[in-house]
Amino acid sequence: MVSRDFIRQLEGYGLTTANILYRLPDHQAILQTYIWQDYDVAPRFPVLRDFLDFWQRELAGPLHSVQVCHGHLIRPAEIRTVNGEITLH
């Protein structure tokens, strides 16, 4: 059986990681970090946008900033041998 994540990658989704900084509700001067990761489509990021909409609607900690990293489609790994040992690049 093929995993849902693999099928999404074939459909053009890539692994997306967001580093979300938000303010603590009772201590607005303190920032907390939350790491979010899912498969999404760049550059619009509809899955991440849905999550951030949920956050703003349902959670008490106001968003400060969001940094996004995105890996593109499936691609072959580059394999080399160094001194007889296999390494992935």
Give a structural overview.
This protein is of the alpha+beta class and 89 residues long. The protein has one domain. Helices cover 22% and strands 40% of the residues. Strands 2-1-3 form a three-stranded antiparallel β-sheet. Strands 4-5 form a two-stranded antiparallel sheet. The longest helix has 13 residues. The chain starts with a helix and ends with a strand.
Any chance you could write out the topology, listing elements then pairs?
Layout: H1 4-10, E1 14-23, E2 31-40, H2 46-58, E3 63-70, E4 79-82, E5 85-88
Antiparallel strand pairs: 1-2, 1-3, 4-5
For the sheet with most strands, the description reads: 3 strands, antiparallel
What separation lies between the terminal Cα atoms? Answer: 28 Å
Structural class: alpha+beta
Which consecutive residue ranges, at least 5 long each, have pLDDT under 50? none
**H/E element string?**
HEEHEEE
Q: How is the largest sheet built, in terms of strand order?
A: 2-1-3
Strand fraction equals 35-45%
Question: What is the 3D form?
Answer: extended
Number of domains: 1
Count of alpha/pi helices: 2
Tell how many strands the DSSP assignment holds. Answer: 5
- Integer average pLDDT: 85
Helix content: 10-25%
Q: Compute the gyration radius: what is it?
A: 18 Å
